[in-house]
Description:
Blueprint: H1 3-15, H2 18-22, E1 26-31, E2 34-39, E3 46-48, E4 53-54, H3 56-70, E5 83-90, E6 100-109, E7 113-121, E8 130-137, H4 149-154
Antiparallel strand pairs: 1-2, 2-6, 3-4, 5-8, 6-7, 7-8
Amino acid sequence: MSDATLMSMAERFLSALKHCQLLQMRVAQADETGMTLVLPWSPAIVGNPQTGAVHGGALTTLMDTTCGMATLCVLPHFEVCPTLDLRIDYMHPSVPGKDIHGHAQCYRVTRDVIFTRGSAYQDDPERPICQVVGTFMRLGPQVKGGIRFGSSLKEGGS
């Protein structure tokens, strides 16, 4: 699959996730090296009003979505792949006012499970806010998700 096709599919996938729309997440990069999403900073996602640090739930959403969408980068056709397990190690709080980037890649694909790893960062990928590993169950290409979910992904692409 071409990078342009993958990027288009990733943007359609993200637009089908209402909670990601509310967080105004966007796709920054999608190719064979993995998926990068951006979570824009806003006062609505602050978890600690004294420091302005982003709430852990917003980071969890970013990284679960990024790892889950990284499966698009390694599968020949779209498959619904729900999260089996997600482990997040928080390294330090985010800096107020700065967008957060989440990057993930798949490092092993089996018949039933896809293994991912990634990190969230602001300015420097070498200084992550958190690191994550996740596993995702392969349900197969015949499973299309909830009502109209699969068809919304097919518009204009594979």
